[in-house]
Structure formats: structure tokens, C-alpha cells
Amino acid sequence: MYRKVDPTQEWAENNYYHLPIQQQIADLVPVNSFWRDYASHTGDGPFLSKNLADASRNFTEMMFALAVLDLPFEAAKHEVKFDGGKMTLTPKGPVVAFHEEVRPVVAKGAPINILVSENTYRNGDRFREENGERFDKFVTGEFVINTVYGCQVVVTNPTSSRQKLSVLVQLPIGAIPVANGQFTKTVVVDLEPYRTHTLDYLFYFPRPGRFAHFPAHVAKNEQFVAAAQATTFDVVKKPTKLDTTSWDYVSQHGTTEEVISFLDRENVNALNLDKIAFRMRDRAAFESIVTLLRERHVYQPTLWSYALLHANVPAARQYLLHTDQIVNECGGPIVSPLLTVDPVERHQYEHLEYKPLVNARAHALGHRRQIVNDRFSEQYHRYLKVLSYRQSLDDADELAVVYYLLLQDRVEETLATFARVNPDKVATRVQYDYCAAYLDLYTGEPLKAREIALRYANHPVDRWRNTFGALSAQLDEIEEKGPKVVDPTDRGQQQGQLAATEPGVEFTIDAGQINMTWQNADMVRVNFYLMDVELLFSRNPFVQQSGGQFASIKPNATQVVKLPAGKSKLAVPLPADLVKRNVLVEITAGGVTRSKAYYANAMDVKLTENYGQVRVADATNGAALPKVYVKVYSKLANGEVKFHKDGYTDLRGRFDYATVSTPERQPIERFAILVLSDDRGATIRDTAPPQQ
């Protein structure tokens, strides 16, 4: 049965499995303990890491981790023995084993209903990092005046019951709130079982001294439940104990050599590098620090911005490349000594393909060509915008233009553009070769197309092997070897093969003879009806509907013709008394009925009604006729007759007259088909739409 063409889909290359280009960023595989182990691996012996489970944030990271692990592709059969509560594993090859153990512990005291903790930290210096792990950096000693601190209150419900609590928080005596804070505040907290709630507030001390702090208190139904530990703040004008090894001290008071030494031994990703921005005015400090950070694969925009001050071209290029505001203002592709912008690398543009896409018109209607698929129209004009920034198009640009022109059936422009592409200068050689073979069918050079397709007959990528295989199957059909399905999921190949097995009969009337051709039939019934062709045509442009008007009329003559086996052609003379009459000839075979008035033409036109295809061949030798113009009108269910599509037969002489990507809102009842050849005349056919 005929199957409607699938909706047009938009396709993009996914270098990473099922990820759009916008998600293919550096954070896709973040740094963790597993990749630290891999970076530390010397290569002496197999690489195995006990931190394998850390590399499981997404599919890409898991595949990368499995790729670098020296585990076999197929696991060996390890020996496992159980002896009571003891298991013995004897591996027969490299293996990663996860072991979990349950041990008894001694309970400590009675359970606590609500847990409360309160800790103070310096605002802007909240955490510290050790061995890649982040820890709280709470302040427990002295506090400094005019310095903003934060207090974190954590309330935990360790019970299985929902708790509705009131939390009273208060600033230390002598402190001033900041960030719209309050001296005293009560917060209602609705804690689900086994949940935690966190409160933060900020303050500073304007003068030194010792100040008591009323800790956070928790109440339920106006009854005290729990409280944090009371503390006293020791506030000083200047710190009496300086941590000369901390980043805060070294960045502000250390020498350039001390700063560089600190950066060289510490985790620079955990440091606030803005603290040393003032040092970047010195050229020597700038170059030393930037060089060290670059070797550590760290980029910091504030530090790199000083490259413009020092006219350091490599660093300035890197700074401009990472400054999105400047890049976005500049627009499309740019190649200059200071800035190179590739829209693909910056995820501003990606090549998209559209399949299936069947155009209704082969020629522009009016002076302006219209792309009716909105998504393709947007992509095409987006690409033209990118190209408008280039001084000249390179070979990769031209090849992409070839594809988008082909989607619009602009064959002559496509051939001219493709001729400018140098295959030695494009990275996508497979795509180039397919375009070359595809266009060889348009230029009538099937042998060249065959030579290209054969080179990819055993291509390792299934999609490309099947694509070139489908091209070879078309070439086989051009050589009368019959249709072949290469990809069972391809709708076009399926329809072509099914059309080749459908019973059918076609005929022409020429020089007093009925020239019949058929497929999958062994006999036909021929009915003859006298008719006034001019009158019938004037009344109804769908000429072939005349056959239906004769369905209830007794034919003037009838013949039953047995078709010879192994052949597909037979000439049957018209009855002598009908040779000079206007007759409608109706032929029925295998449930398929065809009727035709006499038209002088030299074409053999076969309609495969159930699959919406027409095949045009030379009436004399049966050779397929390419480049035969076919124009189709449809009659809708509401009686409206309108243009449906037009185009040309391919090298197989085939044309799909039913399929368009812009379906009618009203159901189609009939098709009227004009087949026109410059040197073989014309014929008009009509047919029902394919059954679905």
C-alpha cells in the first residue's frame, strides 16, 4: 500500500552521543578524582582506578572512562566461592571490584528530636579546598572590625515526622546587619522528615571588644526545643595572628616570587585570582603569572585583560576570544591577527540537514523562489548571513551551498557551484563523493556514479554504506536489473520495490494497433466503446474519467487476450470496423483497469497507482526516458481543481507524482497527469490517489 511521506525532520551531526552542539562544552566531562588518577598514571602497567564511580555524571563521561580503563572488552570468567558468610573472588583478569561491609556500632545516648548548629564565616572566603574536595572555612578565633561576616544556622529534622518550627536568630551584640538584614528575626520552618533547612545572615562589627552572642533557638508550639551553642566574639582592630601562608595574605603582601610559588603549588581553581589583578600592571609579573596559569590550563578574564595594556598579542587574542560581548558585537566569521571567530566553534551556527523533503514545484513561481518549509528557510537564510561576513567562500562553504541548493531543486546552480569545489581542500571527502555521484545522475553519467558508489560498498559506517548502496540500487534499476531495497527502513526504497511487484497494464494506440505493456499479469480483457472525444474532453478536463462513464454501458466490442509468458509487450490490432472511429479502449488485468483515447505519441507511460509513481519509457525500444516533464493537477474533495506538483523523470524514467511535503487540507480524489516530451509528443492520464 502507498505510504505517505514522513514529516520533514531536521538533522544535526552529534559528535557526542545524542547531544546538540550547545551542550558539547568543556564542562561535559568535569574534573574529578577519576580523571586525576588517569592524569597521574605513568603508563607502566594497566590503568585501574578505585574512583571509577565518580566518572558517571553522563553517558559521554561513562564511555570515556570505560575507554581509558584497561579492562577487557569481554569480562573473563572469574572464580567465585562462598563458604558460609565468606566469599572468595579469584579474578582471571583485570577487574574492578566494589566492596561494601556492614559493621556493628555502639549507640551514643538518646535520640535528639531536632539538631541545631550555628557557625560563622568570612563573607567572600566561604570554603577551602583540599585534594580536590571542598570544606567549610569557619572562623573560630578573633574577628576584625569593618569586615563582613556571615552566620549559617542549620536546622535538621532527624525524625520520621513532619515538624513545623520557629527559628529565632539574633545578631551578636555590637554587630550591624548588612544586605537588608535585621537585628532579630523569627523564621517559620516547615521541615519534612529527614530534611535540613539552612539560614544565613550577614553583619559586621564597627568597633573592637568582646561581645556575647545569643545563639539560634528553635521552638515548636511556643515550647523550646533546641538551641545552638552560645559563643562570645573577640573583635579587634587588626588581626594579632596573621596567617602568612594564606592566599589572602600572600596575594596582598607577598612578593611576586612568593605569589608565583603559591600559585605553582596550590589548586588555582580554588583561589580568588582577582586579588592579584593590581600586580598585572607590571609587565614582568603579568607575563610570569599568565604563563604559569596557561600551563595549568587556567584562564582568568581579569588577569588576561591586561594583555591589551602590555600589547601582548597571544594573551590579547585569548582574552578577546573569551569576551562574548565583543565577539557578539563583531558578528559572523572573522579572521584577524587579534581575533578569529568561527561560528561553529562558538556554537552560533551548525550545519543542519532536512529529510525527507519533497518540493511541489520544480521551477520558481514568479520572480522570487519560495522555501515553504519554515525551519529550512530559517536555516538557509542563517547560513547566507554567515557567508555574508566572508570575503570569499572556501571549498567547505561551497559544498554546504551545494546541499542547500539541491534541497531547493536548483540543479543548474548546484552544478555550477559544485564545479568550484576542490575535493582535496575539504575535510568531508565522503560527503563530497556522494554529491558527485548524485549529480552524475543529473548530468546523465551513470558510469561515473557507479565508479564512486563502488568505492564505498564496504564502508565501515552503516549509514554511508547504505546511502551509497541505495545509489547503486538506482543504477541497477537504470540498467533494467530490477529494484532492490538496501535499507528496509527507507520509505522510498520500499515504495519502489513494492511498485515493481504490483500487477499493472498500460497501453497506447498507434497506427491502428493497441500496444500493450504489463507487469505481473497473464491475461487482459479489452473493451471498445465508441465516443465523441472532443465533446468528452470539453465537458471534463479529467479525460480518463470517461472510462468510468462507460462502466455501465455494454461495450461495442470485447476481446480476451492471453499474454505471452516471459514477455512484457504485445500489439493487438483494433477491430477493422473501429480503426477509423473515435473509440475509448478499456483494458482490465489483475483488478487494474486502464482506459485511453487515441493520442499520437511515442512514449510508453506506466502508472503505479497504489504507490503514486509513473514510469516513462521509449515506446519503440523500452528505454527509460529521463528529463520528461510531468505536471500534475489534483481534484479535491470539495470539487476544486488545482495544481499539485511538477518535475522531471530521473534516469530510471521514474517520477513520484503523489508525494509533496505540503499536503492539501482537503482530501484528493483524483490526479490528472500531463506527460510532455519535446520530441515524443504528449499524453494526458488521470488516476486515483494512492491508497493509504
TrEMBL record:
Protein name: Uncharacterized protein
